[in-house]
Automatic annotation (TrEMBL):
<keyword id="KW-0460">Magnesium</keyword>
<keyword id="KW-0813">Transport</keyword>
<keyword id="KW-1003">Cell membrane</keyword>
<feature type="transmembrane region" description="Helical">
    <location>
        <begin position="127"/>
        <end position="152"/>
    </location>
</feature>
<feature type="transmembrane region" description="Helical">
    <location>
        <begin position="35"/>
        <end position="53"/>
    </location>
</feature>
<feature type="transmembrane region" description="Helical">
    <location>
        <begin position="60"/>
        <end position="80"/>
    </location>
</feature>
<dbReference type="InterPro" id="IPR008521">
    <property type="entry name" value="Mg_trans_NIPA"/>
</dbReference>
<dbReference type="Pfam" id="PF05653">
    <property type="entry name" value="Mg_trans_NIPA"/>
</dbReference>
<feature type="transmembrane region" description="Helical">
    <location>
        <begin position="196"/>
        <end position="217"/>
    </location>
</feature>
<keyword id="KW-0812">Transmembrane</keyword>
<feature type="transmembrane region" description="Helical">
    <location>
        <begin position="164"/>
        <end position="184"/>
    </location>
</feature>
<keyword id="KW-0472">Membrane</keyword>
<comment type="subunit">
    <text>Homodimer.</text>
</comment>
<comment type="similarity">
    <text>Belongs to the NIPA (TC 2.A.7) family.</text>
</comment>
<protein>
    <recommendedName>
        <fullName>Probable magnesium transporter</fullName>
    </recommendedName>
</protein>
<keyword id="KW-0967">Endosome</keyword>
<comment type="function">
    <text>Acts as a Mg(2+) transporter. Can also transport other divalent cations such as Fe(2+), Sr(2+), Ba(2+), Mn(2+) and Co(2+) but to a much less extent than Mg(2+).</text>
</comment>
């Protein structure tokens, strides 16, 4: 029991460390670079599961890992340069530019339609409902988290950013988006197979995040067509590797949540043989349990 608790605490600690490192990465690198590189965590998880959990990594899974590595390398080599920002007010000016306001309004409008209308009706059958909500809201989460990270960085360097109301607005937006994103991501994972949810969510979340970052921070401003095309090819390669890697995972065994769930109805009858009554199913076979009633019981 102590060993299980120790492993759980260690796992929670590593998750926290990973999220802190991811947060720091958004401060020093463009979101269009950090988000696609999240596929590397899938590779690490698959390799660790192969050695620690004895989950066999098949040949196609190895190919998926290789594609993720190649695609990530292409993205890094052709990634845009991080824009230097000197204050939270400068980030606020980028956030209220007409193009990004239009994007934000579109995301909020589509998300409300998905939550209020589509989710109650089609959420249990269409995987794109929950993943779409997570992905679109997630792009706003990344933008606000990046703004908060830059504000913290500037504050630690001696330029206090906590005195600006924009910092607190970014903070409230980040908290709201994170809660909404996690809620619907959990709903997607509870409703559909993880092997299906993960690649779809990764593709949609990364696409919306790159698009939002390109609008707000103008990551690709001044880049050549060749660099943009190369990064797009790298992203498609990573996406292909992720899909292959997840498609080769062994499906989780079904969980029995209700021990009293009735079995499929069958027609049974009793036949008399050698003075005894035996139960027979409709297919003529004897069930695993046989109810034997002695003939003298009915006398």
């Amino acid at each position: 029991m102590l060993n299980v608790d120790h492993n759980r605490n260690f796992g929670q600690f590593t998750v926290v460390v990973g999220e802190i490192a991811n947060f720091v990465a958004y401060i020093y690198a463009p979101a269009g670079l950090v988000t696609p590189l999240g596929a590397l965590s899938i590779i690490v998880s698959a390799v660790l599961a192969h050695f620690l959990l004895k989950e066999k990594l098949q040949k196609m899974g190895m190919l998926g890992c290789l594609l993720c590595i190649v695609g990530s390398t292409v993205i890094v080599l052709h990634s845009p340069q991080e824009r230097s920002l000197s204050s939270v007010e400068e980030i606020w000016e980028l956030a209220i530019q007409p193009a990004f306001l239009l994007y934000t309004a579109s995301v909020v409008a589509v998300t409300l339609v998905l939550i209020l209308y589509c989710s109650p009706r089609y959420g249990q059958t269409n995987i794109l409902i929950y993943t779409g909500i997570c992905s679109m809201i997630g792009s706003l989460t990344v933008m606000s988290v990046k703004a908060i990270g830059i504000a913290i960085k500037l504050t630690l360097e001696g330029t206090n950013q906590l005195k600006y109301f924009q910092t607190w607005i970014f903070g409230m937006v980040a908290v709201t988006c994170i809660i909404t994103q996690l809620n619907y991501l959990n709903m997607a994972l509870d409703t559909f197979n993880t092997a299906i949810v993960s690649p779809i969510y990764y593709a949609m979340f990364t696409s919306f995040t790159i698009f939002a970052s390109a609008i707000m921070f103008k990551d690709y401003s001044g880049q050549s067509v060749t660099s943009i095309a190369s990064e797009l090819c790298g992203f498609i390669t990573v996406l292909s590797g992720t899909a292959i890697l997840h498609s080769t995972r062994e499906p989780d065994p079904p969980l029995i949540t209700d021990l009293y769930t009735p079995l499929s109805p069958k027609v049974s009858w009793y036949i008399q043989s050698n003075g005894e009554w035996k139960q027979k199913d409709e297919d003529g076979s004897t069930p695993n349990f046989i109810t034997i009633l002695r003939q003298d019981y009915f006398k």
